[in-house]
Structure formats: C-alpha cells, structure tokens
Design brief:
Layout (H helix, E strand, L loop, with lengths): L2 H9 L12 E2 L5 E2 L5 E5 L2 E5 L6 H6 L11 H8 L3 E6 L5 E3 L5 H19 L4 H16 L4 E4 L9 H7 L4 E12 L5 E11 L4 E12 L5 H17 L1 H13 L3
Parallel strand pairs: 5-7, 5-8, 6-8
Antiparallel strand pairs: 1-2, 3-4, 8-9, 9-10
Length: about 250
C-alpha cells in the first residue's frame, strides 16, 4: 500500500492497521455497508457490486491529486542549454476494480479485482503513451537536445530512485497515480508528470491530467478481449498530453 492509498483510507475514516466499517450514501438515497454489498463476477474478475457511484474516485483519486508546480523561467532557460535530458516512467498504481464498501477489506478486494482485470485483458499503463507523446512535443521545442528514455519502469517513487535510473542533471518522470474501471463501466485515470533537477532533488515542475468516461454497462467494455475498454483508455492520451503540455508551458 503506497502513501497515497494510506492517506485515502485515513481520509475515509479507516486506519490500515485497524479497518473500520464505513457507510456510503447510494444514488438511491440509501446506505451501503459491508453486509449489503452484492458480489458479482466481471467476466472472470471477482468484484463487489456497488450501491452508488464508483469507489474509484475515492480510493484512487481522493486526497491523491498532486499540487501543480509551475516551472520558473530561470529553470527553463537552464534546461534549454542542456545537451541531454532524461525521461523515466514509474510502475503504475494498482488498477482498481469497484467495490461497495471501504476500509482495508474493501481496498484489498478492489485491488484483487483490478489485478485480475488487468492480467486477463492485458491492460497497458496509459503513462507509457502519454510519456511518448509529451516527449514528441518537447523535442521541437528544445532543438538539439537529446532525450534519453529509460525503458525499464522505476518501482520506487522516491526522487533518489529516479536519479538512480537516470543520473543526468534534468529528468522528466511520469506515473499513473490512479486508474481503474467500475462494474457500471466507468473508466478513469490520473497521470502525474514532473521535471526533476537531480543535483538537489528538486521538483521544478509538476503537472497532472485526468481522463474519465461514463458508460452504462461493464459487459460491452469487456467484450472482444476488452477492446472497447482499451480504446477508451487510449482516447484519453492526447487530451492528457495537451493538458500537461499547457501546464508545462505556463511558466514561459
């Protein structure tokens, strides 16, 4: 469980060492608890049918959206004088399936369901494509500067781990900090991007983008090896890159 997930559980009133029954108001105006959740199967992935809006927004995004950091003109000027810049991608946060109750038990069930869904359908991390498109925007902006991409994802989110993967002075890193799909068919993810100055472990720029769709049924998303689910995940790549690029250029 990473720091973001621990913080989210605490914000929901549960401590990782002491799970607590939490109630949730449903769309129908009632409440759902551990006892009233209905178990179902997502074409091979076990989940819990929710009595209300998806848990994704709370488990993967509540309290986890990073603060935006605007890059300074001075840092941009230094960046343009570099012969090379690095790019690192992190392992994504756990892919979540939807559950109808919270606390440590609910977190574990959503994690298990999401793991099954990702493995069954081969769901790829959207940060990979977002990184590629963002760097395509970067190359003409910083002409003559080489971009060295580290292919192996970094498992640790710590800045020291980023420097271990790429030891040059400047490095971009990308991470999917929350993503998943609900049994109702909702699809969403948030990707964070940073520009890090390795010499003093400083994040000089930080941006984030979120993509979400609303659908009525999970079954069409899962059909044909989840072709529609993959299509909807991919549809968010270009809008996310536009958002991140606009945030990066805000310091100019």
């Amino acid at each position: 469980m990473d720091e973001c997930e621990v913080g989210t559980l605490r914000s929901l009133g549960a401590r990782p060492s002491q799970p607590k029954r939490l109630l949730r108001r449903s769309r129908q105006g009632g409440y759902a608890s551990e006892g009233s959740a209905l178990r179902s199967v997502w074409r091979g992935a076990t989940a819990v049918r929710p009595w209300g809006s998806t848990v994704l927004g709370l488990l993967t995004f509540a309290g986890c959206a990073p603060a935006l950091v605007t890059v300074s003109r001075e840092d941009l000027a230094q960046l343009k004088n570099q012969a090379e810049i690095g790019a690192v991608r992190h392992e994504p946060a756990a892919f979540y399936g939807d559950v109808g109750f919270y606390g440590l038990i609910g977190w574990g069930m959503s994690l298990s369901a999401g793991k099954e869904i990702r493995a069954k359908y081969g769901i790829e991390d959207p940060a990979r494509a977002i990184e590629e498109q963002f760097l395509q925007n970067l190359r003409p902006e910083f002409k003559g500067m080489a971009v060295r991409v580290v292919d192996q994802p970094v498992s640790d989110d710590d800045l020291a781990a980023v420097k271990s993967a790429y030891a040059g002075r400047w490095v971009f890193d990308f991470k999917t900090i929350g993503w998943g799909s609900a049994i109702e068919g909702d699809v969403e993810y948030t990707v964070r991007a940073r520009l890090i100055r390795n010499e003093d472990f400083k994040v000089v720029w930080q941006g984030a983008c979120k993509h979400e769709t609303k659908d009525n049924k999970w079954e069409p998303l899962a059909a044909n090896n989840a072709a529609l689910l993959k299509k909807k995940l991919a549809a968010g790549v270009s809008p996310c890159v536009r958002d991140l690029w606009a945030q990066f250029q805000a310091g100019r």
